[in-house]
Amino acid sequence: MSFEDRATFDTFTDDVPDVPIDRLQELQRRAKELLQNRTHGQLEVASETIDWLVKEYFDKEKEKWILDQLEQGGPVLRFLKYEYRTWAGLSDLIDYSYEVEVTREFEFPRAENTSELDALENSLNSFDLDDAGFPNAQVYEYVAALALEQIARALNAFFDDDWPSYLKSDKSMIKLRGLADDSISIMETVCRAEALEVMHQFMKRAELLFRDNMDKAIPAEAEALARKKISLTARMAASARHKDTNDQKTAAITEWEASGSQYSGMAPFARHRHKAYGVTDRTLYGWIRDHRKAKT
C-alpha cells in the first residue's frame, strides 16, 4: 500500500517508497516478517505500549537520580540557589538547562544519551508481558514493532516540506543526513529483534526437550527474579483500580490549581501526590490532563 495520497506514512500498513536509503525497504520487510501473525489492531496496541514503556523508563530513571542527588547532596545542586534545591527545582534544571557544564552532570539514562531500543529493553525486563491487547507477546515482537515506528518517523520527517525559509537551500542535504542517521538506528533495532527471535526459538526448543525436568533446571535466582517482575497489564491498568470519585477529583484539581506551579509538570505532581487521594499516579495525571484540556 502507498501513502502518496495521504499526509503521513502509516507504520503498519504502508510500504516504504523509493528513497535514497534503499535498505529501508528491506528493513521494513524483515521487521514485518517477525510480526506476520499479528493483526493491525494488536500492533496498534503494541505501539501505544512501547511509547508508554519508553517514557516510563526515562521518567523513573530521572526520578531515582533526582531523589539520590537530594539525599546525598550531589554536586549538581551547586547550580541551584538553596531555596530551589527541591525535587521541582532540580527537575526544572534538567528540563531547561542547555549549558554543557550543567548537562554533563546529568548522569542517568535519558533520551539524549540512551537509545529507544535500550530504554525499551530495560523497561520490558521489569514486567511480565501479559497485555491483553497484544496476547502472548514476546520481547522480540515489541522490538520489531519499535523498528516499524522508527521507519515511520524517519519517512514522515524526510517527506515533510514545512521548513523555515532560511533553511530552504540546505533542506535536501539536512533531510538526507537525517534519513541516513535514522536508518542506522533502525538497522540496529531490526537486528536486535531478529537476535531476540532466535533466542526465543531456541528457548522454545529447550523447553520441549527438558519440560519434565524444567522445575529442577530453573535456578532459584531465576525464580526469584520472575516473582519480582510486575504484571504489565496490572501496571498499565493501575488507573482503573480506583473509581474516580467526584470528591477526590475535585480536591486534586483544586490542589493542582493552587500549588501545581511548584512542580515541573503534571507527571511529577501526580507521582508525589497520588497517594493523598487514594489513586494511582496515572489516574491523578489523567484528571489533571483532562482538566487542562477542558480549560483550553
Short structural summary:
This protein is an all-alpha fold. Helices cover about 60% and strands about 0% of the residues.
Describe the structure.
By secondary structure, the protein is mainly α. The protein folds into two domains: 230 residues, no CATH class; 58 residues, Orthogonal Bundle (Arc Repressor Mutant, subunit A). 61% of the residues lie in helices and 1% in strands. The protein has 13 helices and two strands, in the order H-H-H-H-H-E-H-H-H-H-E-H-H-H-H. Strands 1-2 form a two-stranded parallel sheet. The two termini are 38 Å apart. About 2% of the residues have low confidence.
List the uncertain runs: 239-244
The rough form would be described as globular
Strand order of the largest sheet: 1-2
Q: Mean pLDDT, as a whole number?
A: 85
Distance between the termini: 38 Å
Secondary-structure blueprint:
Blueprint: H1 23-33, H2 40-72, H3 87-96, H4 100-103, H5 116-124, E1 127-128, H6 139-158, H7 171-210, H8 214-217, H9 220-228, E2 230-231, H10 232-236, H11 246-259, H12 266-273, H13 281-295
Parallel strand pairs: 1-2
Helix pairs in contact: 1-6, 1-7, 2-5, 2-6, 5-6, 6-7, 11-13, 12-13
Features:
296 residues; Arc Repressor Mutant, subunit A; 2 strands; mainly alpha; 61% helix; 2 domains; two-stranded parallel ribbon
